[in-house]
Write a structure and sequence with these properties.
Blueprint (H helix, E strand, L loop, with lengths): L3 E5 L3 H13 L5 E6 L35 H9 L16 H21 L3 E6 L2 E6 L5 E5 L4 E4 L1 E4 L22 E2 L17 E4 L3 H12 L6 E5 L8 E2 L9 H4 L7 H14 L4 H11 L3 H7 L2 H19 L1 E2 L1 H12 L3 E13 L4 E7 L4 E7 L1 E4 L14 H7 L14 E2 L4 E2 L8 E3 L5 H4 L5 H34 L1
Parallel strand pairs: 1-2, 1-7, 2-3, 7-19, 8-16, 9-10, 9-16, 10-13, 11-12
Antiparallel strand pairs: 4-5, 5-6, 13-14, 14-15, 17-18
This protein binds flavin-adenine dinucleotide.
């Protein structure tokens, strides 16, 4: 009987994993794919309600294949999404919807390859409610609409959670129709009123998406953003630059603690204090080493980093295209966008507006503002135990997996992507954002494409071992 491989979650990571599995396997197997979204391959990131929503990385660095860095740019040329003569294409930030088409085109090719290789694919557009691990190493997957599926290998590629609700006194507010927990839904910028400002919680990349969505809808009212690290815009405009800064990474020891990293950064920043561009290169040079650095930190270092340095790191490593940077600056200069530094305390519902109570860090006191809607742009939530309904939460309650010490994801063996649990026959894998606690930077395409390929190698090895064992059994039976 053919082995069955089940993938829960079919965004970028699930798609690239499946594509590599099909490409690498010499033996036929059955592939079962489940995703709750209407569209496969794209997740929340790469199919959005607005073409104004752009990638946060230039096209030249968005190939789906680590070993073929210009694959995306070549695809753009071949499919004429962008004028072939656009020579600066690799330095441009393109629409995330175009990127979604790119991943879909990769999957279409893989589906054709699967037919040739006699690999059967079964797809389900449904929510995985829960799963059970069986004694023989198989996994039983329960779908919301009642279907029950058994697979030999199960991979959890569930990706981005919606942002977590803040802890406030009046939790019933979260049922208010003018509160949007998920900033990626198109409804957040529909049916707008401009009698009161719109409140955006957070001031990172999701805020930029929401601002661009509001502008596209010709919203003329005021926008207020509140976040603990507010006060002014915290974005760096992208300036194309192909050079690398190697001095700092040459000095990185194989084992390094947080204090040493900060000292090194400080030294190189001071040395290049007159060049903003070099400072950006210094930050960029660290990113490929993030996994090693993070794993070198002890838990205390990790906690200190998350508490005091994470927001600076996010600010320094993200770049926005110059035209978007200018648009947002203009909103800010015209006082249509106000960025406040503070902590939200509570929301009180009124007939025609929402009263927001927050602690204003600048004034050092509690303040109130009235807004027409509240959009949560705090970014994907990490601690899955804080969600009411969550497949990982249910799995943890059954003892199939555990959280890492910092509650950022799932405890996983990062050498082979197996989820760490006490089950002897363990055919449960995960990758992508669920590895955040293990390696910290496990979010962007640059990291996920490599993981998808490595995880596929592991599973192909398992399938081939199984087939070889069966053949040996059969041969000894014949003797
Ligand atoms: C708004 C946004 C923009 C981004 N832009 C960029 C960018 O420009 N460049 C970059 O490198 N990275 C970007 N990222 C990072 C991004 O997370 C990854 O690049 C990539 O999209 C993650 O893919 P994924 O498959 O791991 O997760 P996702 O894309 O989140 O896919 C996970 C899939 O699992 C499904 N799923 C989850 N739970 C269940 C369940 N219980 N049952 C069934 N299905 C389930 C979801 O429906 C989803 O389709 C962005 C992220 C976001 C949120």
């Amino acid at each position: 009987m053919k082995k069955k491989v089940g993938i829960i979650g079919f965004g970028f990571t699930g798609t690239m994993l499946a594509s590599h599995l099909i490409d690498k396997s010499d033996f036929p197997f059955e592939l079962i794919i489940v995703d709750k979204l209407e569209n496969f391959n794209v997740g929340v990131a790469f199919k959005t309600y607005s073409n104004e929503h752009i990638l946060n990385v230039v096209a030249g660095k968005m190939s789906a294949y680590k070993d073929d860095p210009s694959h995306f740019v070549k695809w753009l040329g071949e499919t004429r999404w962008i004028e072939a003569e656009a020579i600066d294409i690799k330095d441009r930030f393109l629409s995330r919807n175009v990127y979604g088409k790119y991943i879909q085109s990769i999957w279409e090719k893989s589906e054709n390859e699967a037919i040739v290789k006699n690999i059967k694919i079964k797809t389900f557009h449904d929510l995985v409610d829960s799963f059970d691990l069986e004694k023989d190493g198989s996994t039983t997957i329960f779908l919301k609409q009642g279907e029950i599926i058994s697979v030999d290998y199960c991979i959890i590629a569930t990706g981005n959670n919606s942002p977590l609700n803040l802890e406030i006194g009046n939790a019933s507010f979260y049922r208010n129709e003018n509160y949007f927990q998920n900033p990626w839904n198109k409804e957040v910028v529909e049916n707008l009123r401009d009698d009161h400002p719109v409140l955006i919680i957070g001031n990172g990349l999701s805020m930029i998406d929401t601002l661009l969505g509001l502008l596209e809808k010709q919203y003329k009212g005021k926008i207020i953003s509140i976040s603990p690290n507010g006060n002014g815009l915290r974005f760096i405009p992208n300036i194309p630059n192909d050079s690398e800064y190697l001095e700092l990474t040459n000095e990185l020891d194989s084992e390094i603690d947080l204090l040493s990293v900060i000292k090194l950064l400080k030294k190189h920043f001071l040395k290049n204090s007159d060049s903003e561009i070099t400072k950006r290169l210094i930050i960029d040079s660290l990113r490929p080493h993030a996994k090693r650095i993070w794993r070198g930190f002890n838990n205390r270092d990790k906690q200190i980093f998350l508490r005091y340095f994470k927001s600076i790191w996010n600010y320094l490593r993200h770049r926005v295209p110059l035209d978007v940077y200018r648009k947002i600056n203009q909103l800010h200069d015209e006082k249509r966008l106000e960025i406040k530094s503070g902590k939200i305390l509570d929301f009180i519902e009124n007939d025609s507006f929402i009263e927001v109570k927050y602690f204003d860090k600048k004034n050092g006191k509690e303040e109130t503002i009235n807004v027409s809607r509240v959009i949560n742009c705090t970014g994907p939530g990490a601690d899955f135990m804080k969600y009411e309904e969550n497949i990982l939460k249910k799995a943890k309650e059954k003892g199939y997996l555990s959280q890492d010490d910092l509650k950022l994801g799932i405890k996983t063996n990062i050498e082979n992507y197996r989820i760490i649990n006490s089950f002897e026959a363990n055919n449960l894998f995960t990758l992508g954002i669920n590895l955040k606690g293990e390696i910290f930077e496990s979010t962007a395409v640059a990291e996920l494409r490599a993981q998808a390929e490595q995880c596929a190698n592991e599973i192909v090895k398992c399938i081939q071992n199984d087939v070889t064992e069966k053949m040996l059994d059969y041969n000894s039976y014949l003797k």
